[in-house]
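In keeping with the milestone schedule agreed at the kick-off meeting, the structural modelling team has produced records for the first pair of proteins. Each record is given below as a sequence line and a structure-token line. The laboratory manager (R.T.) confirmed that both were archived under the project's standard naming scheme.
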Amino acid sequence: MDEINHKNYLDQITIYIKSYLEKKPGICQVKNDIKPPAERPAVLMWEQKHCLLLPEDLKNFFLTCNGFHLTWCVKMENNTVPVGNMELCSISQLVLLDAAVDDGSHLTPSLWDLDGDKDKNGRKLPSFVTSKIFQLDQCQGYGKVCLVYNEVTPKGEDDIDPDNENDFKFPSDYTTEIWFLDRSLRWHFICPTFQAYYRLMLMHLGLPHWQLAFTDIGLPPTSLQWFNLYAPVRLEIDLMGDVTKSSHTAGKGMASPLDLNKVFKGKSDRKKPGAPQNMASGTNVSKKRQPISSARSAAVAGKHVTASVSQPNVKSK
């Protein structure tokens, strides 16, 4: 009974993505590897080992299900092609990437030489030397999704003399973000929290290379075809270049204003009387006329009718 309740709870936190995919045409073999929750001592041991605190959203995820893996395929003629893949590591697989050394030279370069100050949006890039980087997803070899701990400089630390033993240094504090590391070792920001990344993963249905939509590399042509087939709305949002904002604001910027006057323009025009003006002028209009479709055509029709009625009166004089 507990396993059944746990499965139903996982279906809720995954917004029933498995049932949604099974209803899509052509999709088959939707497999969700349900993993049991992690033990709380295992989470505490990880924090003590790395001297870090896990973000609350990621910690709650591990205490709910220790990892996540969902795959799905597409049936094409007589073949089955694997397409979708959503994967998040377990607490034991959340390993620290090898740190770089800062004593490299032109003869023995290191990852420290690749460190940059800020990205094009002014955000501080992760450092291979000072940041603590943990791998969340291997992305099938085309990159890595990483949980990055960036050290926050305490207030007044720049004034501390490291050679003076009497100067007190505050303990290090860190902020966490989710970044994507491509195969050329360049960093690309995805979102500020694990919860936001989890939602993005579900909304992209685990389509191939979906993380590249957050980079200047862009989606490859084959991935664009899968997006057009199974997630065209998400592709349109990604191509607008504001994917992170769209996931947090729940489409506030995507709503287009609705002008009710334009929507019901045809109905309001039909209510405008075009013929009573001719009746007030004392002219008799023939009952057999062509139907009037708009106010403009009514005005034009009124002119022709008054002209045809007024001509016999001139001749009679």
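The second protein of the pair:
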Amino acid sequence: MDDQTALILALQLIALCCIAAALLLYLLCRIRNRYIAGSGQDQDDPEVTLNLGLGRAVLVTSCDTAFGLQCALHLSNLGFRVFAGLKDPDANGRDDATEGGSLAARILRAKIKEREMLNSECASEASAPPSGAAVGALITIPLDVTREDMLHEAVVLIRRNLPAGEDGLWAVLNTAGMCCKGRLENQENAHWDVMLKYNVVGALRTARTFMPLLKNKKGRLINMGANINHTNNPGSGLVAYTAARYAVEGASTALRHEMAPHGIHVITLQPNGVALEKIFAAPRLDTSDKPSDHTALEIQHPANKYLDYNPSVLPSQAMRMIEEALLSKSPKQNYQLLPQSKLNSLNHSMLIMKNKIMSAQIKPTQLA
């Protein structure tokens, strides 16, 4: 056996050992993460999921998106005092508070009404839910990040609905945005303008408007950034949207340094592995056909279709990343909603090594 053949065999043996070690490490990490999730602890900060919301005030800038609606309901269930921004939150004077306004507004009103009924039942029975099951307040406010008048009005409404002695926000979760999917040569300038207006200018206006409230609490501003995993193809038709998201990513990096002296954390969520066009899509009710015997129940309780709505744009793993960004004492600058597994990264490296080995095997044959 010549030296070159021995070297190639040694490299292949090393590659196989690395793959086996990576598989073992991956399985151990999965087991550890399950144990951590079951014990209510976080591997980076033990207090990430132990403190929970504790009534801290959080603004979700847009619940007109399924992503924002999911975040508002989830954070409220964790005990945060959530201010849910809606472009059209009013019921327009209707007797049934679940009708009127946008679909997201009707869903939130139905959820709020249900909570009020449960709270009144608990009060009448002189009982309270367990402390671990405390649900935070959910307050809808009119808000459109592209309109200065609504932004300033939102500040007034938030201060009016904060508990006595409070004057600040723990976090602003900027869920407002827009994605117009389409190939670049088929899009009009108006498509680009509206995406830049909502995604970039809206993010800047949001940061400027709510900065005083964040300063009072040394809070955190959370923006949706770009998909920085270059091994993933964002998909065709997302050129302008990707450009807007990278602009938000860059603005957040600069703002992070500007706000550091005030104790404000600027965090970006990177939607790796999440369908980009679904993040800012409007919520939709399940329109699947139902048996005819459900009709009477729906007539008696028209809010059932709103109460049963359960947004699931992001999986539970992504929601845990948002929880960590909100609750960690020392949050990271960036959070990947669906972190790339170490196994996938190693597989990519092994593929590169394999190609080099194959090229080294071909060269002696060519020389012969």
